[in-house]
């Protein structure tokens, strides 16, 4: 494993996206591609209206370009191709959604059924592509057991891609929250890739981390730019595809535990609201808003969730050590 090249990829992406995002901010301002805040959101978030969105473009384009320059042969690696296709594919779905939002100036965007249809088509496509070259087995964390799921592997992959992309999207509600959480969650997969000698995947992931860190520089409170669905869906695609090609599908649930909690909180809130005729289980969902409306500052909520995400990332690395 060439660690010098890994560091170079990380550094180039970091520097590259610091420049790209810095240029994107005034460009998106000029196009009036500003964030549209949903009416039912916290009142304190109304000030975020108009902040440039679709900043995910920067951390999508930058690592792909860096990899093309530093490791062009990597794009012939099937596992890397899967990760890149998920990254770009889900990012494109998010871009369509964002574009509709900023053009119409409302927060509906791509209708949920169409968005879910596109996400599902991608999930099925990736399963078919990957199943032709890989087994339907999964590794059980903290053991040396390998379980063959057979036909149920399709269900797992489908839920991984559609669930992870939507869950990461739900976490994108506070400045720096989702980008910081995905940074934490990606680190274990870099470790898994290095441990498995999957250099091309490792190089892409560290490049992605560099670009994401650069984005976080502009996205931390008070945010100067938002990633939009372009970025959040792309990030979810990276996590799901990395877990699949590195055979860490079950570990993804633990490593991405904060995303799972965000998604589950919405499910509970909606279900409780319908069953009780309008009562709320949480002050607001996703759950990060529950803490915010409980009196915590936005930065306090973000830092608390980052700390949990970092702990789960460490647990993920420990899982890799024991497998």
Describe the fold and architecture.
The chain is mostly helical and 323 residues long. The chain has twelve helices and two strands. It has helices spanning 3-31, 56-70, 78-104, 112-131, 152-171, 177-195, 199-219, 228-245, 249-255, 257-275, 287-293, 298-322, and strands spanning 137-139, 146-148. Strands 1-2 form a two-stranded antiparallel sheet. Helix 2 (56-70) runs antiparallel to helix 3 and helix 2 packs across helix 8. The longest helix is centred in the N-terminal third of the chain and has 29 residues, at 3-31. The mean pLDDT is 91.
Summed up, what is this model?
With 323 residues, the protein is an all-alpha fold. It is built from 12 helices and 2 strands; from the N terminus they run ααααββαααααααα. α2 crosses α8 and α3 runs antiparallel to α8.
List keywords for this structure.
12 helices, 2 strands, two-stranded antiparallel ribbon, 323 residues, mainly alpha
């Amino acid at each position: 494993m060439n660690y010098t090249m890994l560091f170079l990829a990380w550094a180039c992406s970091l520097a590259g996206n610091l420049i790209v995002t810095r240029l994107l901010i005034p460009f998106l301002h000029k196009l009036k591609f500003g964030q549209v805040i949903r009416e039912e959101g916290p009142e304190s978030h109304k000030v975020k209206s108009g902040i440039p969105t679709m900043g995910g473009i920067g951390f999508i384009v930058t690592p792909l370009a860096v990899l093309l320059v530093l490791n062009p042969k990597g794009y012939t690696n099937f596992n890397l191709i899967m990760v890149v296709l998920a990254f770009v594919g889900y990012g494109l779905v998010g871009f369509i959604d964002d574009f509709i939002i900023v053009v119409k100036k409302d927060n509906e965007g791509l209708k949920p059924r169409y968005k879910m249809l596109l996400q599902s088509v991608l999930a099925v496509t990736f399963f078919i592509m990957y199943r032709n070259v890989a087994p339907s087995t999964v590794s059980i964390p903290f053991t040396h057991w390998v379980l063959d799921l057979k036909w149920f592997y399709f269900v797992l992959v489908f839920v991984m891609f559609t669930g992870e992309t939507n869950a990461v999207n739900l976490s994108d509600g506070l400045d720096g929250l989702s980008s910081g959480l995905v940074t934490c969650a990606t680190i274990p997969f870099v470790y898994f890739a290095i441990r498995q000698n999957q250099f091309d995947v490792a190089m892409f992931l560290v490049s992605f981390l560099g670009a994401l860190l650069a984005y976080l520089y502009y996205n931390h409170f008070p945010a100067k730019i938002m990633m939009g669905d372009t970025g959040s869906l792309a990030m979810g695609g990276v996590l799901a595809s990395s877990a699949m090609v590195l055979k860490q599908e079950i570990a993804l649930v633990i490593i991405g535990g904060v995303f799972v909690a965000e998604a589950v909180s919405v499910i509970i809130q909606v279900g409780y609201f319908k069953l009780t005729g309008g009562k709320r289980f949480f002050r607001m969902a996703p759950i990060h808003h529950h803490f915010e409306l409980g009196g915590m500052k936005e930065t306090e909520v973000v830092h608390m969730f980052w700390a949990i995400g970092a702990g789960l990332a460490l647990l993920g690395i420990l899982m890799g050590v024991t497998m």
